[in-house]
Structures are given as C-alpha cells and as structure tokens.
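Protocol check, entry for the methods section draft. Step 1: assemble the input record (protein sequence plus ligand SMILES). Step 2: submit for complex structure prediction. Step 3: store the structure tokens unaltered in the notebook. Ligand used here: LTUXU72L. Step 1 record:
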Amino acid sequence: MTRLLIKQGTFVTIDEQFSVFQGWLAVENGQIAAMGEGEVPQRESESATEILDGSGLLFMPGLINTHGHAAMSLLRGMADDLVLQDWLQNHMWPTEAKFTGDDVYWGSALAAVEMIKSGTTTFVDMYDHMQRVAEVTETSGLRASLTRGVIGLCPEDVQKAKLEDAIRFAREWHGQANGRINVMISPHAPYTCPPDYILKFVEAAHELDLPMHTHMSETLAEVEQNVRDYGCRPVEHLDRLGMFSRPTLVAHAVHLNDEEIALLAERKVAVSHNPISNLKLASGVARVPDLLKAGVTVSLGTDGAASNNNLDLFQEMTTAALLHKGVSGDPTVVPAVEALRMATLYGARSLGLEGAVGQLKVGLKADIIAVNIAQAHFVPRTDYVSHLVYSGRGSDVVHVWVDGKQLLRDRQLTTLDEEKIMAEAELCYRRLRA
Ligand SMILES: CSC[C@H]1O[C@@H](n2cnc3c(O)ncnc32)[C@H](O)[C@@H]1O
Ligand SMILES: [Zn+2]
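Step 3, stored output:
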C-alpha cells in the first residue's frame, strides 16, 4: 500500500468554517488519511512511501464543473457573438449532426486535457455518444456525472430510440470506473422536449433511481415561449411534470421570479450557474445572491467551450464573484469564499457527492489540486481565498489527484497524451468543416 505525505504546504479546507493553514496531509487508498497543522508527526514521516515538499504550493479540493458539453471543445471559436437560439439552431446543431463517436471521443479528450490542467477533478457532461465520453473519463482518471442529453424535436420512433439510448447508457455506466462515473437523466430543455416526452424521462429517473439534469430558463425568449406553449413558466412546467420529485440540477436558471426561487428552494433543486456562457450569449444574469439567500445550492459550470470559450473554473469563480457585485451595486454579495464554495462544496452537494469530494477532510476521497502560490499574483500573503478567486487562473495549477491517483505532475499529464489529443481534435474539426 502506498502512502503519500505532503509536507510544509498551505491548505485550504472548504467548509462552512473554511480554514487556511500551514501543515501536512497524507493520502492512502484513494482517501485523505490524515492531515494536520504545523510539523509532520514522526509516525507520519515513518509510514510515508512518497513525500512531496509542499513549500510554495497551496492544496485545495479539486474543482467541480457542474454543467458542460465536453465534445463542444471541437467547436470553440466557430460561431462567436450570437444569441442562444441563433447559435444553437444555425451553427451548433447543424455541425453536431455530423459528429461521429470519434469526434465526441477526441473533443471530450481535448476537454479532459484542459480540465485537468486547470484544476477540475469532477465534471458534468450532457451530450450524445456518451459511451465515448465515459471512455475518456475512465482513461483520464477524472470523476464525472454523465448524461445522454436528448432533444425531442423529432419523430416518435426517433424519440423512442433516444430515450432507450439514455436508459441503456445509464444501466451500463452508472457506478463504473471504480465509482468515478455517475449518471443522470436529461431531457435537454423544456423547449426541445414536449411535455409527454419529459414525463418519460421522469419515469425513467424514478425507475433507475437517478437524478435529473436539464437546461432551464436560460433566456427570456425561452420563458415567453413556455408561457405561450404551455400556459406557465418553465419552473412551474417542470414541477407539474414531476421532474423536481427527483434530485434535480438545472443549468442556467437565469430568468426567475421570486415565486420560482422559493419553489426551487422548497423542492431542493440545485442550480448550475454558468456566468461566462450567459454573458457571451447575452442571455442575462442569474439572480445568484437571491438564490443563495433562499437556500438554493448554486454551483458553477462552464457550459461547452463553444460558448465560454474555455473550461477554466478559476475564471468562472472570478466572474461569479465580480458580476453579481456589479449588477447589484452591493460589493458584499458573492464574496470570494462563497465563489470558492460554489466551485467545490456546493458542486459536490449538487451532484449528491457531499461527504465524498469537494472538501479537504479526513475520510474524503483524495481529489486534490496544488496551486503554485510562489508567483507575484499570490503576493503578499494577505488572504489566499481572495487571491485564488480574484487573481488565480487555471494555469496556476501544478498537481492534480483524483481518488489519490496523480493525473497532473508538474503540469505534465500522466494519463493522457496531450500532443496526440490536440492533433486529433484539430483533424476532427477540419473534417467537420469540410
Ligand atoms: C443534446 S446534447 C446537449 C446539447 O446542448 C446544446 N447546448 C450547448 N450549450 C447550450 C446552452 O447554453 N443552452 C442550450 N443548449 C446548449 C449542445 O449544442 C447540444 O446539442
Ligand atoms: Zn449547456
């Protein structure tokens, strides 16, 4: 049995009473086995099989990206500066229709490279050809909640086949990769899935005992269309269809009224806040301070790299912390520590993984990242939580572990061939555009 000892590091434990301390941490059997402040006890030095000098490094829980479409990394920069519906209907969907399983594999691998190198250890992915995303997850060593996203704007036989594919994927992959893969059930959105079709997903989620994930209330146009088509706003619509009787994570939730926020809190629906994607597609600004005040779990997502245009959760934290101050005129909303919790603890909570990941605590899985704080933008040592959120970047991450396995060592990937993946992704894009 190997036992890694990290000594003389700076540690940020994320909890309601987060703390920053100088000390040590031991990893054994994929878990945080022990940790403490100050000098390493002699018994820890003696039982270690590997020792890492943590001087100049800050260790914290790996970041959790609660909404994305990994394979869309292939479409980065392809159609910038458009509103959602134009972007989706006239650019993303026509190109995605040509995606093969291999395109999804290499696009997702490209995303995995970027995520690991910017400190993400768990990601949510909603897409098609999900077995290929699962393969990337298995090989890369990342942790993921994966879901076959289904657009139901198609004939009944195609709808049926897509639902069956989602169920088959769930049965095959939930709990796989040593428990690193979980599965969710996903009708893509209320405006792309008719109500009777959404009902079938809710039934499947009950049968399989799985959580649900969907896009919801992302644009004003979507809310208005929902009212026109179904006589109510998306939150009430999904509630009537029984979706919130399952543990549910909704992406975006930008356009909400007070009653909807109260209902989301009551139903314990979690929200994945994607501030950069929402800004880029000019969708609006989610009412994050109000959601948090109401007790809704709000985590952070990048969405796909075609609407972001990167997968760096540090930038998402910075944006979340700044944006809501700007629009509210209140500098106290979304303080740095809350942005950090959104990217870690609240991410874990929204995926049913609280108590397993998202914090540095003895007994939790060793999903840990090390940030190089021996750099000008982390000086002086006033407040490391502030530095991480307001001046940190994904490229500051030097080491990454998931389940105690090191996926990034001195910024070198240990499980993925970065050069090959970039070359294959470039070829996929050229083929798709030909
Ligand atoms: C059917 S798989 C997922 C589907 O979602 C599309 N998508 C990507 N970003 C967004 C977004 O912000 N809102 C709605 N849908 C989005 C993606 O292009 C895939 O087709
Ligand atoms: Zn999305």
